[in-house]
Each structure stands twice: as C-alpha cells, then as structure tokens.
Known about the structure:
The complex is a heterodimer of chains A (116) and B (115). Chain A has no helices and eleven strands.
Amino acid sequence: SAVISQKPSRDICQRGTSLTIQCQVDSQVTMMFWYRQQPGQSLTLIATANQGSEATYESGFVIDKFPISRPNLTFSTLTVSNMSPEDSSIYLCSVGFKAGGADTQYFGPGTRLTVL
Amino acid sequence: SQQGEEDPQALSIQEGENATMNCSYKTSINNLQWYRQNSGRGLVHLILIRSNEREKHSGRLRVTLDTSKKSSSLLITASRAADTASYFCATDANAGGTSYGKLTFGQGTILTVHP
C-alpha cells in the first residue's frame, strides 16, 4: 500500500496571498494528481503532475493560478495563487499504480483551505 | 466531459439494514471505482470493477456494473454506524485498460447509519 501525507493539513489565508501544498508518497509512483473538493461538492481533477515536465491541466484550471511542481517520483507541490474566497476547498493529491496485479488508487488526507 | 450522477443524494438507515447506492455515467469507461469519505477527510478506496466485469464482492460490499445502461450500484450489507460517510463513484476512461488516477467523480451519496 501507499502512504500519502500532505502539508499543511489546513490553513486560513488572506485574499490575494498564495499557499503551497506539499504531497509526499512513501514509494515511487509514476502518476500523481491534484484534485479540488469545494464545500459540499464532489472532487474535480485539477491536473496531472508529471515528473520532469510541465503539469497537464484540466479544462478550467490554468498554470498561473495552480502552478505544480514534481521534482521526483515521490513528491509534488500545488500552489494556489492570488487566492480568493472561491478557492476555499479541500485539495487532495492522489497516486495511481498497479499493486499485485490490481489497479490501486490512494488519496492523501487533504488540505482544507479557507480564504478570508 | 462525463459526469457521474449518484442517487440517492442522502440515505438514512438503521444499523443492520442494507444500503444501496446507484451511480450513472455518460461515456465509455475502462473501470469504475467506489470511494468512501468520512467528514470531509481523505478518500478511502473501496472497490474497483472493470468494464468487462458485472459484479464484484469485497467483504460486506457488493458492486454491480451494467455498461449497457452505464450504471453501477454499491450495496453495503448489514450496515454499521461506522459506515456513516459519503460514498462516491468515480470512472476511469483512460485508454489501455489501466487506471492511473485520472478519475471523474460522481456527486456522492451521504449515508447515515443510526445505531
């Protein structure tokens, strides 16, 4: 199994500032992803964090707003830039890989962000 | 893009009863997965069913998949108060028959199990 940690677990930020969220996995994984879960809503994929190249963003998400780094196969960061109250959400990283022949998905515990 | 829809949006039952949640989707998939989330925390992967499978069991969980109707159901038997959580279906439409985490989630069902 994979163990994923995220830092910070929660934060309260002021409008206009930026926050960087870290995601650490205890094993090397090819695919890492960042999701957003707005209050009372389901999860929406923000981007795929690619190691050694630029992240691949989903429709509605742009690099200037959500820059992502993936320096190695166990670590990634997501920055939420120039925040507004609409960015208040839970941000989760996830990894996907095959374990024992079965597809396995793991999610981090999430970072709960409140923007005032 | 496809979007899963789940029903019911909320389900309230007594301990010991069975809980059934349904999920529908719009496009072809490689697999469908069910997750549980407790109180806005991280997601726990429950079960994955591939597009060529019709039914799968894991402990008290039973998942069915009907690709002709583009729908799936999750049955939790003999529910417990600890099963209280939000349940989400997620579809993987990636080519190649492998799942790499790029998932489209349904809106979720909030399950409350009363002791």
